[in-house]
From TrEMBL:
Protein name in the entry: DUF4386 family protein
Keywords attached to this entry: Membrane, Transmembrane, Transmembrane helix
Bilayer-spanning residue ranges: 25-47, 67-90, 102-125, 145-169, 181-199, 205-223
Annotated stretches, region: Disordered: 1-22
The keyword Aminoacyl-tRNA synthetase is annotated on this UniProt entry: no
Keyword Transport: no
Taxonomic classification: Bacteria, Bacillati, Actinomycetota, Actinomycetes, Micromonosporales
Biased composition (Low complexity): 7-17
Source organism superkingdom: Bacteria
Length: 232
C-alpha cells in the first residue's frame, strides 16, 4: 500500500503546471497604438500652413522645427517595433483559434504590416528633413517643402488597420475566434477606417485605427484563448 501511495504522490508533484498565456505581444500592440496616436499628433505637424503658397516663406516659418522632426523619427521607430511584435503575435494567436486554412490570421497581420511600411517611410524622411531644416538658408526651399509633404502624410496612413480589424471581426462572427462584443467593436472600427479611405480624409484613419490597436492589445492580453466549445 505504501509504494502505491508514494507513486501517486510523486506523479501529482511532477505534473507540470499549465503554461501561462504569453501576453507581451498584445501589450506591445497597446503600446504601439498609444505611441502612434499620441506621438504622431504631437510631432507630425510643423505649422506654418498659412505660408504654403510661398515655399521660401513656409520654410522660414518652420526652420526651428528640427527637434519635432527628430522626435517624429523616434516615435515612428518605437511604433514600428511595437506593432511588428503585435502583428506576429496576432497571427500566431488567431492561427490557434481559427480553423486550419483560414485566411483571417494572414489578413490581420498583413493589415498591420501595411501600417509599418507607412511608418518606415514617414519616419525615414525625418533624417533628411532634420538636416535640411538645420541648413534652411543653404537648401532649395522647394526641396524642403516637398519633403514636408511626405513627412506630414505617410505616418498618418493607418488604413491597413481597417483590414486587420475587419479580418478579426469576420473571425469572431464566423468562428468565434474572439468574443462577440470585440468582433462587433472591430467591425465598427473597420467601417470607420474604410470611410476615411473612401473620402479625402485618409489622415484621420489614425484615430479609429489607433484606438482599435490599443483596445485590441488589452483585450487579447487579458482575455486568454477562447474555449473550443465557444468556437464554431
Amino acid at each position: 500500500m505504501h509504494p502505491t501511495m508514494f507513486r501517486e504522490t510523486t506523479n501529482a508533484a511532477t505534473t507540470p503546471a499549465p503554461a501561462r498565456p504569453r501576453r507581451g505581444w498584445a501589450l506591445a500592440g497597446t503600446a504601439g497604438g498609444l505611441i502612434g496616436l499620441v506621438g504622431i499628433f504631437a510631432t507630425a505637424s510643423l505649422g506654418g500652413e498659412e505660408q504654403r503658397a510661398d515655399n521660401a516663406g513656409y520654410v522660414a516659418a518652420i526652420a526651428d522645427g528640427a527637434a519635432y522632426v527628430w522626435a517624429h523619427q523616434v516615435v515612428c521607430s518605437l511604433a514600428i517595433v511595437c506593432l511588428a511584435i503585435f502583428a506576429a503575435g496576432l497571427r500566431r494567436h488567431l492561427g490557434a483559434q481559427e480553423p486550419a486554412g483560414s485566411l483571417v490570421p494572414t489578413l490581420a497581420a498583413t493589415g498591420v504590416g501595411l501600417v509599418l511600411v507607412g511608418l518606415l517611410i514617414g519616419g525615414g524622411i525625418s533624417t533628411q528633413l532634420f538636416f535640411d531644416l538645420g541648413a534652411a538658408g543653404e537648401v532649395d526651399p522647394d526641396t524642403i517643402a516637398a519633403g514636408t509633404t511626405i513627412f506630414a502624410t505617410m505616418s498618418w496612413l493607418w488604413g491597413g488597420i481597417g483590414l486587420t480589424a475587419g479580418a478579426v471581426a469576420v473571425g469572431g462572427f464566423r468562428h468565434g475566434s474572439v468574443s462577440r462584443w470585440f468582433a462587433v467593436f472591430s467591425a465598427v472600427m473597420a467601417l470607420l477606417v474604410a470611410a476615411t479611405q473612401l473620402a479625402p480624409v485618409q489622415y484621420i484613419s489614425l484615430v479609429p485605427a489607433g484606438l482599435w490597436v490599443i483596445v485590441a492589445g488589452l483585450v487579447l492580453a487579458f482575455a486568454g484563448p477562447r474555449p473550443v466549445a465557444e468556437r464554431r
